[in-house]
Amino acid sequence: xxxxxxxxxxxxxxxxxxxxxxVFGNLTQPPNWFHSEYLKCPKAVNLEAWLVEAIFGLDxxxxxxxxxxxxxxxxxxxxxxxxxxxxxxxxxxxxxQDVSEMIMNLADHFRQLRMQSSEKAATQETGTQGSPAKVPxxxxxxxxxxxxQETGTQxxxxxxxxxxxxx
Length: 167
Description:
By secondary structure, this protein is of the alpha+beta class.
């Protein structure tokens, strides 16, 4: 089992009561919007490790931006590079819920992109790309039983030849 990959924002502290977390990294002090009581009840989101990298970038390069915008702190534990990862979200409960939903929506988006790219690669590999179906344009085609001659090319009618009706 691989050791969890640690990102630069939080570090785990062992306490008698269990696991608590402390703000860590290049911050001299926690942001003014973050209070220590938010460290007590993190919300956990479990995802595949590749999705965590797709969402937050390699080595979590986008985590500080997400934390700043969402007013939450994130901690990512990765048990196995090919397996599962756990994201702990610290902050106000309704912010935790919003960030959790955002992460799950992004995960669905990246899963769909991966599925589409694998389907596209499979169709290119087999060479069975279908041609698009021919759809007639509405209102631009004439019905086949109606004959319309162009103006000026019609033969003169009898009424046009009669000098009395011509006037």
